Amino acid sequence: MFKKILIAEDHESISISVQKTLDDLSISNMDYAYYCDDALAKVQKSIREKDLYDLLITDLSFEEDHNIQNLKDGKELIKAIKELQPSLKIIVFSAEHRSGVIDSLFNEYGINGFVRKARNDSKELKKAIASIYVDENYLSLDLQQEVKQLNNYEFSNYDITLVSLLSQGVLQKNIPIYLQNNDIKPNSLSSVEKKLNIMKENLRITNNEQLVSFCKDLGII
């Protein structure tokens, strides 16, 4: 099992809960950081002293206070740490629910596991730690299904542009004007209508309002 773990979490009660979960797994060598800059400093020190961490468990959101930080959130922390110690295993423990954001954490930031803060999250965290220890990425079944739904339809930049304009209150009939002014093609009304209909059909959505809401939930707009 992992020997040395760093917990980056700004809420003390949640940090204590994570510590209890690690205690249940007989993991006693834990360090804690309530700020991203502090977490990065601990990793830097561990590298200098050649006493590396095996696993980082981090939240994504960190509340701002009087202590000004260079790293503002968990994503920035993950990116900075990966540059220093690419082999470090990382679990994101967060209330984030948008499938698009979760998918990008694996594909763009190279995390190894994601556990949503919710009911039974302690059990999920234990499963994640066990899976990652044997080099298997971890994402709970319900989140896998949501991410699969996201990946079943590949959103192009053109798709995202259309939905973003709808989310900004631009009427469908006026979208071609924006596309023409920005030299984006195809830019006819029929092309816009056809593309929006294809998205709604593939995603099993009936109207533009639902399409905008769906894409916001995924985190792609």
Automatic annotation (TrEMBL):
Record lineage: Bacteria, Pseudomonadati, Bacteroidota, Flavobacteriia, Flavobacteriales
One Gene Ontology MF term: DNA binding
UniProt source species: Chryseobacterium culicis
Keyword flag Phosphoprotein: yes
Residue numbers of 4-aspartylphosphate PTMs: D59
Keywords: DNA-binding, Phosphoprotein
Positions of the Response regulatory domain: 4-132
PROSITE patterns: RESPONSE_REGULATORY
Chain ranges passing through the membrane: none
One Pfam family this sequence matches: Response_reg
One GO-annotated biological process of the protein: phosphorelay signal transduction system
Protein's recorded name: DNA-binding response regulator, NarL/FixJ family, contains REC and HTH domains
